[in-house]
Amino acid sequence: MGRPGLSRRQLLAGMGGLTVAGSFGFAALGTGADALASGADTRVRYWNLFSGGDGANMIAMLDAFRAQYPDIAVKDSTLQWGNPFYTKMAMAAAGDRAPELGVMHVGRVAGFSPGRLLDPWDIGLLAEYGVREQDFNPALWSRGVIDGKLYALPLDIHVQLCFYRKDVLRKADLLGDDGRMIPVGSTDEWFDVLKRAKAVQKKGLQTIGLWTNDQNFQWWFFVAFYSQLGGEWFDDARTEVLFDTDKATRVLEFLRQHVTDGYVIPGAPTGEQFVNGAPFTWEGNWSVPVFSGAELDYGATPLPPVFGKQATHAESHAFVLPHQADRGGAPNEAAHRLAAYVVQHAQQWAAGGHIPAYTPTLTTDAYQKLTPQNEYVSAMDHQATEPKVWFAGSTGVLAQDLGPVVVSSTMGSAKPDAVARRMKDRLTRLLASKNPMDGRTAAEGGAAA
Q1: Rounded to whole angstroms, how far apart are CA atoms 222 and 104?
Q2: Which of 15, 67, 144, 150 is the most exposed place for a label (fewest CB within 10 A)?
């Protein structure tokens, strides 16, 4: 694909500096013989990281595809979420043992050596199957474009949300005429809302769950509110750190105030407290099936624009083509057809709380009747994402490095201004460091779309 491939030995050596859990085994690869046992003409091996409710929804979508296209045998394998998944995907691509289709978080694509470990999508072939760029949010589509080629076909965005108990907020007169939480436009307004909710909530519960000691959630919340302030990360050339420590300090002080003002019980189980009557919790949209299954009277909105600008943290599951030396022909066409089908039939996927990336789905009557999904669908238009660099993305180096630092501020073991300066120092070191996948810095990686 234009650059020499990585050997398995080179890949393992390069990954020596990464935190990688789990086995390097390839049990999920299989031979694919079972997938062709039905007499189908073409096989597509498909690796994903979906378990639980997401896994059930994906299987339902795959079964529908199998029924419509019996000549294509889909061999789907679910691997362990996080770094074990990405490690196996990279090793398979480097060793020419990759599946025809895979799933990644879009934020990880820039670091996955596009053109070496990933193959680009055939835009013309996707169009033949009904998937076109104009059917996606422009910012979301561009996140999957590296050096002018599409390497990630978005399936969804998944966002951090403000879940609220309508039964509690109704007592505090915090619901509007539409039955939804009243709008909030400043930090003062937000803490006033918390104060009023706390006055009517059940005793012994926290007012809001913030995952105060979780490095991933704290990092996601920081990204959202730093984006609300218009905070920047790096220049376009990826050679200079533009991180604004004053803005970062404001965000860190805001997160910390939830603890100092007594609205959070550090370490308390956030979801369980919400189910038991806590007025608020900030969670990912994947909690929708849990709270709906508990038959709560609740709503969900994007994280409040306390700094004046709408922005809520968002990541995206996307289909990718792991590198194959001989990619092409019927298996490659079938992989394109499968991905295009799932993207266009994502109503089932929306049941898990995710916002479908294929925008025609969002205008259907069926989607607009989904609650609370129809309340936070606007998050598609104000996504707060991590910078487009090799060390970003879900469970990536950036979150692992900066997440614990944010936690130290929120929990009170370090002062916000000192933490902000530490974050800038770490960003400076990361920007100068080399991607273990290909030995190139962010400036050398061609990650700017």
Answers
A1: 23
A2: 67
